[in-house]
Specification:
Length: 183
Amino acid sequence: VSWIRHSDSAILSVDTLLFTKSHRMKVFHPSGADEWILSVNPVEISDAGMYECQVASTPHTSHFMAVNVIEPRTSILGTQELFIEAGSTINLTCVIHTGGQSMRSSHIYWNYNGQIITHNRHRGGTIVIDKRDQEILTSLIISHAGPSDSGKYTCDPASSYAQSVTVHVTKGDRIFSNFVLGQ
């Protein structure tokens, strides 16, 4: 059994012997099984393309697989710096473009100054998650914002790149900052 990548006509493996220098590719053949598994981990955008599993038999047998790789993207709506009047509501919305791939909402975190915000945050706050066909929207809502709510908020999905916004809570012409050094 051989694995072939058609984008560059590379023979990736014959039986369990690898012919690629990539540490990301492995071939598994469970003892006594009829399965030959090509594993690519972690997957990269360049791994997209046509792959062939060839079986040296008479007659020759092949199975072709098209591999599509979708890169999730993350963005926070609005600007990277947000000024909020003390007593107002902070409403941050993060959009994770999944390209239709499944993603567990339990793997999406909001961080405040590098610390994970939980649903039972000491001063309150609500996390809302809305799953759609091609994206997931998650909002962090903090009512009655005060000086201690100033800082860096990060939307951090496990399968995509984190994005951040800096929130400044103002009172009249005063701006309160609440940053942790070294973050």
